[in-house]
Design brief:
By secondary structure, the protein is an alpha/beta fold. The chain has one domain: Hexapeptide repeat proteins (UDP N-Acetylglucosamine Acyltransferase, domain 1, 3 Solenoid), CATH 2.160.10.10. Helices cover about 20% and strands about 25% of the residues. The chain is built from 3 helices and 17 strands. The protein has a 6-stranded mixed beta sheet. A hairpin with a 3-residue loop joins strand 8 and strand 9. Helix 2 packs antiparallel against helix 3. It is globular, with a radius of gyration of 16 Å.
């Protein structure tokens, strides 16, 4: 189950009211630095931007591949452990704007995790240490440590347990 906080809105859908919930200048600044990170070949530069400008928690030796898209409005709600790989063109969201409400949720990705290319990680999920997420998956629920999951809807391929 995803852990998100829900905030009801009156009037038009929540996305039309985005700048009541997040500063326009924060969104513009974050967008510019996220685009620099998406195209940068340097893992050190990406991690520095994520940690020091966007306020994300990013562990040592974590690698974000080319074109990874982190949440523009709430990147500080994203936490990634050590030695994790986030695959090409993955999207990590910490918000969702709906017709009558918006939701915010922390995303916790453990250490030594492998996230395959073109994966979408939704707000409010936790991915345990040593988990493997297959390419093209939609992570809409928690993933146990040492598990291998894939697909849309997300299916468990191998249960979470140590290979030791």
């Amino acid at each position: 189950m995803r852990r998100t906080d829900k905030y009801p809105v009156d009037g038009p859908n929540a996305l039309w009211q985005i700048y009541h919930t997040v500063s326009k200048w924060k969104a513009i600044r974050n967008f510019v630095f996220i685009q620099i990170s998406r195209y940068s070949p340097s893992l050190r530069v990406k991690n520095w931007i994520y940690r020091h400008i966007l306020g994300m928690t990013v562990g040592e030796h974590t690698a974000f591949a080319l074109m990874v898209m982190v949440d523009v409005f709430f990147p500080e709600k994203i936490h990634v452990g050590d030695n994790t790989i986030i695959g090409y063109n993955t999207t990590i969201l910490a918000h969702e704007y709906l017709t009558r409400e918006y939701r915010l949720g922390e995303v916790h990705i453990g250490s030594n995790v492998m996230v395959g290319a073109n994966t979408i990680i939704l707000p409010g999920v936790t991915i345990g240490d040593y988990a493997i997420i297959g390419a093209g998956s939609v992570v809409h629920k928690d993933v146990a440590p040492y598990s291998f999951v894939a697909g849309n809807p997300l299916q468990i391929i191998r249960e979470g347990h140590s290979e030791k």
